[in-house]
Structures are given as structure tokens and as C-alpha cells.
Amino acid sequence: MNDNAAFPHLLAPLDLGFTTLANRTLMGSMHTGLEEEKGGFDKLAAFYRARAKGGVGLIVTGGISPNTRGRLAPFGCELSKFWHVNKHKKITEAVHEYPTKICLQLLHAGRYSYHPFSVSASKIKSPINPFTPKAMSVRQIKGTIKDFAHSAKLAKKAGYDGVEIMGSEGYLINQFSCVKVNKRTDEWGGSIENRMRLALEIIRAVRASAGSDFIIIFRLSMLDLVDGGNSWQDVVTMAKGVEAAGATLINTGIGWHEARVPTISTSVPRAAFTWITERMKKEVSLPLITTNRINTPEVAEKILSSGQADMVSMARPFLADENFVAKAAANKSDEINTCIGCNQACLDHVFKQQRASCLVNPTACYETELTFAKAKQSKKIAVVGAGPAGLAFSVYAAQRGHSVEIFDRGSEIGGQFNYAKQIPGKEEFYETLRYFNKQISLLNIGLNLNQEQSAEQLIAAGFDEIVLATGIVPRALDIKGIDHEKVKSYIQVLRDKEPVGKRVAIIGAGGIGFDVAEYLVEEESLTTNPEKWLETWGVDKNYQENGGLSGKENREAPSREVYLLQRKTSKVGAGLGKTTGWIHRATLQKNGVKMLAGVSYQEVNDEGIVISIDGEQQTLAVDNVIICAGQESERGLFHQLEAKGVNAHLIGGANVAAELDAKRAIRQAAELAAKI
Ligand code: FAD
Ligand code: NAP
Ligand code: SF4
Fold first, then answer.
1. In terms of C-beta density within 10 A (0-12 exposed, 13-18 middle, 19 or more buried), how is residue 131 classed?
2. Is 252's pLDDT higher than 80?
3. What does the angle CA 372 – CA 377 – CA 380 come to, to the nearest 5 degrees?
4. pLDDT at 1
């Protein structure tokens, strides 16, 4: 144990025999997109250096393939040639400036490889990939084992302290270990002993090539969460095999990428899956790492102090705040910029082949490009609007030494985040507001709530710069009967808590339309009730069926009958987040929400709302119609200032309302603060 009063278990060192980890935090593997970018390794080195400086005990890099067929994408990163070693040295040398260890993740994607040369145990296509893999020949299997061993040797040469062998999430090793997609009849298929042969041979070969003083983490799929996944008995047999084969640590893998159970999104309760690692602790004696939706030191400490695991893996929380561990160690966990699990700037980017970053921390993966040097001259700056854009600008500008005053006409900071945080499953948004409140007081930023400033007042106060982050106003619609008393805006529902009837039509199926629908059908948020949440998504903690799925979802009846409408003819919800949209669609479908596309709005009247689809008219008998039809910039103050010859800066929704989200609002604010 460490003598830190608040987090003694989290900060305790972990003795691995031949080496010791500084504490129990592991920064989990994240592909950033920099791996494939020109000059990306210099940026990656800066990215990892910042996390090492911030005190993380052990880092695992993004997945790197041991050979060409195993690459995730055609130009995916691979470590197989001697000339690859030098660029990796940049990373290890940067990390080793601090007492942090770093392992390279070896990931062969198998049938998840997004290219036509993919291979797997059997010729079975994944539902999330258009490419059908070829079944590997025995020669290819043996070659792949050698490739893993060779990569590990190169990783050691590059200065890595070890490797993590990716055996979960539905990648190649998991494809072999699971009977669902391993239909082989040779010694690599059939019994669990045969199916886990690839994993164990790889561990043995890596140990032989990299030596005894090399960390080998095996990421084991403890819960496949797919029909036909492995049984608990198979998982335990494999864990014991992994231990005997020479691994140093076992990391927990939860759910294949194609699983239809959310595993890391914001609506997943914190630490919802740590029970599976706890269960495994009774079976093996290797130190176990647990994972998924652990985003505060308090949650991590509780897991470790209750003996559920020996180490805690957090990935996205280190994007959100590189100083997570240092702040915890200084008893300043209330200063941590908490990951809200939105996936918007990290996973959604990676799945679109864009560089990852973080919605709440736009400097993540931009450590050398978005920097906040001390200002040559401290300016007096007024910021109007305390939504995400105004708050982020104020914090970064104050960090640079500017004197900042924020004004907001509301009674609390946060702007539209105050509506977002009320949506069931979006409770993490409170954390961002807690973070900003803390920063405002630490940086002595002047906070003036309940104050609507006029252009005259701002000019008279003699500010050097005026930044307008006044956000948006909801779009007004021109539909017959729009003034009917049953019509409400989402603001009347979420902010003013106006009563809503049992039958509702929502006009507009963007992010806000979906959120409002969830708010109306799910009266109780399951995010704070992990047991009920698991039941709702059909996860069986007793592991009676293979894959950990119960086969039935215990959901409460929805509290309302809701229609979600859009004019576009495309699939409703098609524009939602790449990695989270399916969760929102599934949640609404399971709650009986009727999603209609290609709608033309005719009239709102006493009966409900009259619409037509493909020229066919119908009346939806509803008590309320809620408008979630997008927004327009709030620029009244800008124009008043402009008329008086003052050129203010516009950021966030006040700048461009179309397709606005907090990710754009915060990044734009940071970019302005970096140069003002
Ligand atoms: P706003 O948040 O609108 O803030 C503007 C602020 O300016 C307000 O506080 C307002 O009171 C103040 N103001 C305006 N005029 C004046 C004036 N004249 N004087 C003083 N103060 C003034 N985005 C995401 O990225 N992810 C999500 O999951 C997400 N979920 C959402 C869910 C809901 C229900 C809603 C409504 C929005 C959601 N958003 C989400 C959108 C996100 O909240 C906005 O993109 C973001 O808040 C825009 O930030 P902003 O600072 O530009 O404006
Ligand atoms: P939005 O995503 O642009 O959606 C607006 C909706 O209104 C669309 O479905 C649009 O569909 C409809 N619409 C637009 N003009 C209309 C008109 N004149 N008449 C009738 N319908 C109209 O905007 P939003 O839902 O207001 O969300 C604002 C921003 O917040 C979004 O950019 C989003 O990224 C962000 N947000 C994100 C999340 C998240 O989970 N990531 C959640 C909430 C909000 P049709 O034009 O087809 O009718
Ligand atoms: Fe977390 Fe969202 Fe940042 Fe990703 S983008 S690290 S999910 S806060």
C-alpha cells in the first residue's frame, strides 16, 4: 500500500518479480491515428511522454500488427522489420524519462482486418466487416506465431518493457479461441485445448524470444457478449493455460466489437464489468487487470481495495486528462478533467480514419500543435456565455495569464450541457461542469451569472478583447398550428420541466431529438443501477449461457408512446455517432419508439399532428409535439457590437450553429485561446 490517504491501493507499487510498476494504473491501448500519420511518431512520443509525466504506472500502446495480413487497415501499423525499430525508440525514450513502463500491443485483427487479405480460423465473415477472411493454413498459423515472437523481439530492441498480446474483443486470437467462428477440425479447432493453442503458442514463443525479464500481458476475453461465445469454463481453462504458458499479467477483455451490448459508452454504469475480473481472481494467481468505464480515482480505488483486481486499466480517461494520476496523488481528484464516455473525439474519429483526440481535452494527440504558452502581454478579456465554448476559452486564456471575466444570463455555468446532463445515461456531463467550476476558482476567473451584458456595458468596461460564446436559439418552425398549446420546444421540456403527456411526437431526429425521446421513455436512469442495467441489456452475471448473455432482456415497459420524426428519407439516426448511434437506436427501438422518415408536416391540431409520408396523410394522435428541429446562432450582441465598430470574436454555436456539438465548440475555443 502507498501512504497516500485517499488512494493507497491505486498508488501502491506492483512487484512483478523482475520489475516493479510504480502504481496500479494502466493506460489501456488506444489507436490514435498518429501511428500511420507522416511524422506521427514524434507526435506520439509527445503524447505518451505527457501521460508518463502525469504519473501513469504502465502504458500499453495502440495495436500494432505482427505482420501484414493482421493489419487493421491496408496501411495500418506493423512491427516486423528491423527498420521499424527506430521510430518506436522515440516513444520508449520519451516515456522512460519518467518511472513509467510501456508495453507494445501486438494485435492481429484476423477477420476484423479491413482489407481483402484478411485471415481467420475459419472462412466466416464478421457482420461488421465487408471482407470475408480466408481460413488460415497450418503453415500460416505457425508463421503467425513466429511473427508475434519476432515482433516482440523487435519491441524489446526498441526499448519496450513488454508486450500486450491482444486476445479479446473478437480479434484473431479470440476468433481461434471461440467455437462461434472457429469451425476447424484439426488441432487448432474443436476442444478448448485446441482452440486456445494459438494463444498459448504465441505466449510461449514471445517468452522464448524476448526473455524472462519482459512483461507479457495477455488480454483475455472474459466475457464475449456474443451468441455462441465461450462458456465460463472455457474462459477459466484458457486463463490457467495463459498463466502456465508464461504470461506476467492478465488483462480483462469485455465484448467483441460486433457485440450488441454497450461496453464503454457513457450510458454504461461505471465499473459495470469488474465483477468478471473478481470472479477470475478465484481461478488464477497472476495479477489481474480490470477495465471498462472506470473514470475516476475513487472508482478505481474502490475496485482495488475490495480485491476485485490487482490493477486498473483506463484508456480514455488519460486522453481527457494526462495528469489523472498526479492529481490523484496530490489529493486533487476534483481537478481531474473527467472522461465523459462520449466517444465523439476518440473512437468515433478512429473508426472514420481520423486522428483521435478528446472532446473535453482538445490537446490530446495535439501535444505539439495546440499549446498554451504564457501570453507576452496579459489582456483583459470579456467572455459572454458560459457554455462549453465560453468555459473552455476562459480556462485556456486564463492559463496563459490573461485576466478573464465570464458573463452569463443563466444562473449556472454550462449552457446546453445543463440540458444534456439530465438525459438518462448522460450523467457524466455533470463532471465536465464540476471540472470547469473548479478551474474557474483556481484560475481566479471572474464569474458573473444572471447577467445579460449590453454592448454599451461591455464597451464601457474597457476590455481589450470581447469573446462571444452566446450559443444558439432553437429553430422556429413554420407549420400550421405551431402555436397550439400542445407544441413545446425541447427547452421547455428539459429546462422548464413543463409537463408532457403520455403520447408524444418529436419533430427532428438529430442528437437532441434522440436524447429527448430517451428522456421521455426512460423515467429512471439505469446508469446508476448496474445490476438493473446488466439485466436490461441481457447480460447474465451467473454466466449460465455461453458468451455471458442471458438471452432475455428484462426491460420495464416504456412510460410513454413516442414518435420520432424526420423529413429526410434516410435511416432515422444515421447521423448519430459512429460508435454510439446504434446504442441510441437500439434503446429507442426496445422502448417501442416509432421512428418515421420522409415525413412532411401538415398541421398540429386538437387531435394531434397531421403528417404525410409518400403522399399518404395520417394523424398521429398525440398530447404533445416537441420541437427538436435544430438551432440557429444567437448573435444579437455581436451585431450590436458590430454596429458600434467593435469586432468581437465568435466561438461555438454563436459562430456556426449547423452541426454544432461540444467537441467543435471546445476545440474552437481552445484554438482561439492559444493565439489571442
Ligand atoms: P451553449 O451551450 O448554448 O452556451 C451559450 C451560453 O451563452 C448559455 O449559457 C447562455 O445562457 C449564454 N448567453 C447567450 N446569450 C447571452 C447574453 N446575451 N448574455 C449572457 N449570456 C448569454 N453535444 C455534444 O457534443 N455531445 C452531446 O452528447 C450533446 N448532447 C446534448 C444534449 C442536449 C439535450 C442538448 C440540448 C445539447 C447537447 N449537445 C451535445 C450540444 C452541446 O451542448 C452544444 O453543442 C454546446 O453546448 C454548445 O456550446 P456553446 O458554448 O457554443 O453554447
Ligand atoms: P441536428 O442534429 O442538426 O438535428 C436537427 C433535426 O431537425 C434533424 O433531424 C432535421 O431533420 C430536423 N430539422 C431541421 N430543420 C428542420 C425544419 N425546418 N423543420 C423540421 N425539421 C427540421 O440538431 P440537434 O438535434 O438540435 O442537435 C444539435 C447538436 O447537438 C448536433 O449537432 C449534435 O451533434 C449535438 N448533440 C449530440 C449528441 C450526441 O449524442 N453526440 C446528442 C445531442 C446533441 P430533417 O431535416 O430530416 O427533418
Ligand atoms: Fe472520453 Fe469523450 Fe474524450 Fe473520448 S472524447 S476520451 S469518450 S471525453
1. middle
2. yes
3. 90
4. 66
Question: What is the rounded CA–CA span in Å between residue 648 and residue 461?
Answer: 14
- Cell numbers placing 420: 444534456
Sign of the dihedral defined by the CA atoms of residues 295, 296, 299, 302, in that order: positive
Cβ–Cβ under 8 Å, residues 254 and 28: no
Distance CA 331, CA 328 (A): 5
DSSP bridge partners of 467: 383, 649
Atom of ligand 1 nearest to the CA of 391: 51
CATH number at residue 518: 3.50.50.60
Tell me how long the chain is.
Answer: 676
Residue 437 CB coordination number (10 Å): 16
Instruction: Indicate the number of domains in the chain.
Output: 3
Domain that holds residue 71: 24-350
Calculate how far, in angstroms, residue 513's C-alpha sits from the geometric centre of ligand 2: 7
Looking from the CA of residue 266, the nearest atom of ligand 3 is 7
pLDDT band for position 86 (cuts 50, 70, 90): very high
Which 3 state secondary structure label does DSSP give 447?
Answer: strand
* C-alpha 537 chain-centroid distance: 19
Q: Is 410 in the pocket of ligand 2 (CB under 6 A)?
A: no
Which of 491, 518, 565, 567 has most ligand 2 atoms within 8 Å of CB, for mutation? 567
* Cell numbers representing residue 228 in the block: 455462441
Q: Exposed (0-12), middle (13-18) or buried (19+): which is 548, by Cβ within 10 Å?
A: buried
Name 39's Cβ contacts closer than 8 Å, sequence gap at least 6.
none
Q: Do 464 and 565 share a domain, yes or no?
A: no
pLDDT at res. 554: 78
3-state DSSP call for residue 53?
A: helix
> Are residues 450 and 487 part of one domain?
no
CB-based pocket (< 6 A), ligand 3: 316, 319-320, 339-346, 358-360
3-class DSSP assignment, residue 504? strand
User: Based on the domain organization, do 572 and 661 belong to the same domain?
Assistant: no
User: Are residue 110 and residue 216 in the same domain, yes or no?
Assistant: yes
Which residue's C-alpha comes closest to atom 2 of ligand 3? 342
Q: Could you confirm whether 171 is annotated as catalytic?
A: yes
517 lines ligand 2 (CB under 6 A): no
Q: What's the Cα-to-Cα distance from 252 to each of 162, 235, 287, 525, 566, rounded to whole Å? A: 17, 11, 11, 27, 41
**Closest residue to atom 8 of ligand 3, CA basis:** 339
Catalytic residue among 171, 396, 435, 543: 171
Residue 639 and residue 589 share a domain: no
What average pLDDT does the segment 112-141 reach? 97
Give me the half-sphere count of Cα atoms (radius 13 Å) on the Cβ side of residue 118. 29
Q: Which of 359, 393, 416 to mutate to test the pocket of ligand 1 (most atoms within 8 A of CB)?
A: 416
Last residue of a domain, one of 350, 370, 394: 350
SS3 461: coil
Q: Give the H/E segment covering residue 143.
A: helix 138-157
| Inter-CA distances, 583 with 228, 261, 266, 509, 514, Å | 21, 8, 10, 15, 11
Give me the pLDDT at residue 555, please: 81
In whole angstroms, what is the distance from residue 581 CA to residue 584 CA? 5
Output the CA torsion 341→344→347→351 (10° steps).
150
| Ligand 2 contacts CB of residue 652 (under 6 A) | no
Residue pair 406/386 in contact (Cβ under 8 Å)? The answer is: yes
Cα separation, 375 vs 377, whole angstroms: 5
Q: What is the pLDDT of residues 509-548, one digit of tens each?
A: 999 999 999 999 988 889 889 999 999 999 999 999 899 9
Write the burial class of residue 249 (CB in 10 Å: 0-12 exposed, 13-18 middle, 19+ buried): buried
Residue 239, CA distances (Å) to 167, 198, 207, 276 in order: 11, 13, 17, 13
